[in-house]
Write a structure and sequence with these properties.
By secondary structure, this protein is α/β, with parallel strands linked by helices. About 25% of the residues lie in helices and about 25% in strands. The protein folds into 2 domains: about 150 residues, Quinone Oxidoreductase, Chain A, domain 1; about 140 residues, 3-Layer(aba) Sandwich (Rossmann fold).
């Protein structure tokens, strides 16, 4: 009996450079897992760009050959888990998939049941991947900030607002009625960000200089920071009393130069958000809220759909900061 085959983007690593190619594989090549999924959609994220670029200081993939892709949505074909049955529509984000377990740039994936969540009612598989890890991360940030408590009379800053997480965060905050300030280094995207719901647009350069003095005028009641580095330092110094920052990115650098003053003088809280290994309960709650707040998914000008063959080029463009909004991959 012939084993079914499927298409996948496979990475190999001669010398110091990752090389990718679309190949035909059979199911025996898939890693171990108790649920086999027919993948319908995936996404292209910054981490995927790092995996495909293969730069030594950005190496995400831990062994070769390897199928990248940290997200996917699809339909269960086979399951050894009582939680899922053939025909179930499911979503996967994170859990090391696309880093140390073959990922979503493939027509089939075999994964562990505990990594999957059921597709929320009212959401399509395509809509789920229009959100992907970016939408999940944005929703986790807002949920965390609201648990802390956000003063709706204060401004909420979103850094890296033109990117995937930032775009969804701006939309969600606007939907929830917050005065949202979008920070972006691309002035040509001002109309795009205002259409998403941003109340104000500021140039990211205004946040890029290290805070001096360590406490500045109070500006932000809450922040969703995708950048890190001096941008996060600046945001900390400009927080309103009792405010909070949800930190989840480091495209601007992983170092944080600050003092204890924002924490002890203004009672500021810094909340780390990680969508890769967050609990299943938090995932389910975030996906349900995404379906509630954005029942039609993301608008067309936020999402671009590509095929598997276009993934390598798009992944590199993401790393270079040339991609606005979300990219989904139709398998």
């Amino acid at each position: 009996m012939t084993t079914p085959t499927f298409r996948a983007l496979l990475l190999t690593r001669p010398a110091d450079e990752n090389v990718s190619a679309i190949v035909e594989l059979d199911e025996d090549a898939l890693p171990a897992g108790d649920v086999l999924v027919n993948v319908k959609y995936s996404t292209v994220n910054y981490k995927d760009g790092m995996a495909i670029s293969g730069s030594a200081h950005r190496q995400v993939v831990q062994f070769f050959p390897f199928v990248p892709g940290v997200d996917f949505s699809g339909v269960v074909e086979h399951s050894d888990s009582p939680e899922f049955k053939p025909g179930d529509e499911v979503i996967l984000n994170g859990w090391g998939v696309g880093e140390k377990h073959w990922g979503g740039f493939s027509e089939k994936a075999r994964v562990r049941a505990e990594w999957l969540v059921h597709l929320p009612e009212g959401m399509s598989l395509r809509q789920a991947m229009s959100h992907g890890s970016a939408g999940l991360s944005a929703m986790l940030c807002i949920n965390a900030l609201e648990r802390h408590g956000i003063d709706k009379s204060k401004k909420v800053l979103v850094t890296g607002a033109s990117g995937g997480v930032g775009s969804v965060a701006v939309m969600l905050l606007a939907k929830l009625g917050y005065h949202t300030v979008a920070s972006s280094g691309r002035p040509e995207h001002e109309g795009y960000l205002r259409a998403l719901g941003a109340t104000e647009i500021i140039d990211r350069k205004s946040l890029a200089v290290l805070a001096d003095p360590p406490l500045m005028d109070e500006r932000w009641g809450a922040v969703i920071d995708n950048v890190g580095g001096s941008t996060l330092s600046n945001a900390l110094a400009s927080m309103c009393y009792g405010g909070a920052i949800a930190s989840l990115g480091l495209v601007g650098g992983r170092d944080l130069i600050t003092t204890v003053l924002p924490f002890i003088m203004r009672a500021v809280t810094l909340i780390g958000v990680n969508s890769v290994y967050c609990s299943k309960a938090d995932r389910v709650a975030a996906w349900a809220r995404l379906a509630e707040l954005l029942p039609d998914g993301l608008p067309g000008d936020v999402v671009e759909e590509i095929g598997l063959e276009q993934v390598p080029e798009r992944a590199l463009a993401v790393v270079r900061g040339e991609v606005r909004g979300r990219t989904i991959v139709a398998l």
